[in-house]
Amino acid sequence: MGSSGPNAEYVETVRQLGGLSRSNPTVPQQQGQDIDLVRRDELARGIAAAFRSDTTPPFPKMVATLFNSSNPQQRAGVVNELLQSVSAGAVRRIAGGVLGRMLGPDIPGSISAEQACRLSPSDVSAIAAHAAQNDPSTIDRLGSFYSQHPALVKTLGSVALGVLSRHQQSQQ
User: How far apart are the first and last CA of the chain?
Assistant: First the structure.
């Protein structure tokens, strides 16, 4: 496989996944299964590195992409993670006030899957931008959140997967 050490299989899988392109977005089933075997803490750090990388789309855009590919429970989970970094006053203003209108005057600590599905990816992008600016650890928390959903990570595309691979190689 070219690499050695405990992460060698993961690095090779991510390297192969990094060969994906917009013209060939499919992942062979075996490779998809391999990424599911990666230790979650390693995957979380790699995802956070991809979120921070200058070679990937901006963090808010990547979160919007992942949100768009998520099921209702995952959508609620990511929005709730983001909301941990946003004050109640900001919740009322972000993304044109969509959350404030949806949630009313009493902003709860979390939103439901149904409520999350009423948000657009651009709404979530605006929330992610504000959350990361307000609390840089948001990126690490979202890396951890998405490490629990490795199938979604594949929707980030080849550039982000390449960053994951390089991050894992640097950790060996």
Answer: 14
Angle between helices 40-52 and 137-147 (to 10 degrees): 130
Tell me whether residue 2 is in a domain. Answer: no
157: pLDDT strictly greater than 70: no
pTM: 0.72
The half-sphere exposure of 28 on its side-chain side, counting CA atoms within 13 A, is: 9
Structural domain range at position 99: 8-170
Count of structural domains within the chain: 1
* Residue 1, domain member (yes or no): no
Query: 155 exposed, middle or buried (CB, 10 Å; 0-12, 13-18, 19+)?
Result: middle
The closest alpha carbon to 123, from 159, 74, 71, 83, belongs to 83
Tokens standing for residue 159:
């550039």
